[in-house]
Amino acid sequence: MNVVCLLGSPRKKGNSAAVADYFLENARALGAAAQSFHLNSLSLRGCQACNHCKTRAEKCVLVDDLTPVLDAVLAADVVVMASPVYYGNVSAQLKTFIDRTYSYLRPGYIALDHPSRLSRRKQLVFILTQGHRDPDWFADILPRYRELFHWTGFADTHPLRVVDVYGKGDVNARQEVKQAAQRLARLLLARSAAAAGATG
Fold it and tell me: What is the C-alpha separation between 156 and 146, in angstroms, rounded?
């Protein structure tokens, strides 16, 4: 199984990155290959609304540090997106990537039964960490993006949401988060193995 992880926090060792590391460590221990991209370290631009990916190209025509990331996600079996909650949404860094996945949609996507250019549906791990301790706050982020991700070509969105982790390293004391990451890694590795056996 090939896992690609997108780290959306400006902090390389922030709480969302720590949760992503829990998942990746378990996935690697189970035999997966995994690579991570720290989006804040890249030189990237948002979608320019040029629509070239719908009229004259099969992929985003912008050439920047996000180009190989978009390609890596296309080749992945499982994608991990990790972000802190900033002002009621994912970070600007992750949102920039999400906007550029517009290029994954085929021309005429609105009227198509299968609008995605992804060759197969991929599992998506969606990690959100927030400092606010009330779980009702910002609970709308996951359902809002789940529909968008499915439309873009992902099969299922598996959430790992952690609330009340305001300070740096707060998540490290949350054993239930580590256990949830381990269970999810096992689940997705088992699904990947089953899918490979069905097509092998």
Answer: 8
